[in-house]
Amino acid sequence: MESVNxxxxxxxxxxxxxEDPDKQLLLFGMFxxxxxxxxxGNFLIILAxxxxxxxxxPMYFFxxxxxxxxxxxxTTTIPKMLVNIQAQSKAISYIGCLTQVYFYMLFAILDNFxxxxxxxxxxxxxxxxxxxxxxxNPRLCAYLVLMxxxxxxxxxxxxxxxxxxxxxxxxxxxxxxxxxLAQVLKVACSDILINSIVLYVFTALLGMIPLGGILYSYxxxxxxxxxxxxxxSKYKAFSTCGSHLSVVSLFYGTGLGVxxxxxxxxxxxxxxxxxxxYTVVTPMLNPFIYSLRNKDVKGALRRLLSRALFxx
Length: 312
Hints:
Layout: E1 3-4, E2 11-14, H1 21-51, H2 58-87, E3 91-93, H3 94-127, H4 132-135, H5 138-163, E4 168-169, E5 173-174, H6 181-186, H7 193-226, H8 231-262, H9 269-292, H10 295-311
Parallel strand pairs: 2-5
Antiparallel strand pairs: 1-4, 2-3
Helix pairs in contact: 1-2, 1-9, 1-10, 2-3, 2-9, 3-5, 3-7, 3-8, 5-7, 8-9
């Protein structure tokens, strides 16, 4: 293949999950359904958090931000995949690929940071209940979310600026259904040493530091629960953490699968499944986890739907 400067590359080819023509209709229907469920479920969580005064607390403020991030996360990848299947095309423009890489990284890392902030919120609520409203005031909550956005915007931009310096070959094929940074780097025709070092360093930092924060928060929560004399108080306190723990387990479990699979030379069927779980299934399940395990959210959703039906 002829190697040319990145500015002359007009498009890449996304090979998708399967090249079997008989599976394309099934993939289109499956991913369209999951995308619609993801958007609707997370949108309802946001509406419930905004419209119901019972949910005007830091916990649900962070939850609504997580739901917004999940909508954007899936929107970064799935619509383009659906358009390509419908048009029977594998093409994505060079600018489109860079844009997809940027926003995919942005919302994936933002999900990670928000889960850490939510763990801190649960730590304060359980370990310092008398000072909760003072510590988790609206100003601090807004500051924490804005700080997450600020840090991640610059981290993602650094990766894009480094990627823009790479050279790609004409007709470059990306063995994935979207432009994921690690897979794009593997098909570059120029040296990717600096890009790889930056990728692994930031993956370690932005993965281990938030995870460490979550583990620290829950270690303090468990210690605090052990000092509670009433078993009813223990159950009530820890039940508020159940949904968050489920989401954290799902997020890090699938994220670890994607990270380990991206380290392999080729994208296997297992890594494709791990990526689908991480980018599609996890954001789709989050609203169900929070609504099914949380009486406040279920009540708010019932009131929201009742008002909607009454207005009709």
